[in-house]
């Protein structure tokens, strides 16, 4: 099987400053893994919560939502009412959504995040950024790094959940 190397081994991403290349690589790697491991995932298992674990649907909603939120904070913005509503509804089952629509929304958020990365001024990386209602301190770089790290970690959790759910099926 002819498989590409991991994204970080394919060279620099055009239009993204060298300091932010690892963020872009991590986000693209996550998108590829989500696409690969959700391919042909049974729709009937999307909202299953085996043993109290978060569902595959939750993981996909959360991946999209958290990237949107972290990039808002990195851009110096607080969350909008729509983002707050999305956050409140992430943990609920959404029978109207499909694996395909959830993965497409995640891929669209990855594209938006990469576009934001390309527009990030390297001189702003150490700028103070306030996070959440408590306005906890961070920086642009801290938030972008956390977005990449959180996304990769959560994709790992998604993959474990997918394997677990599929293993329970006859």
TrEMBL record:
Lineage top rank: taxon: Bacteria
Residues of the DinB-like domain: 29-158
SUPFAM superfamilies in the cross-refs: DinB/YfiT-like putative metalloenzymes
Pfam families, A to Z: DinB_2
UniProt-listed InterPro entries: DinB-like, DinB/YfiT-like
Name of the protein this chain belongs to: DinB-like domain-containing protein
Native source organism of the sequence: Ravibacter arvi
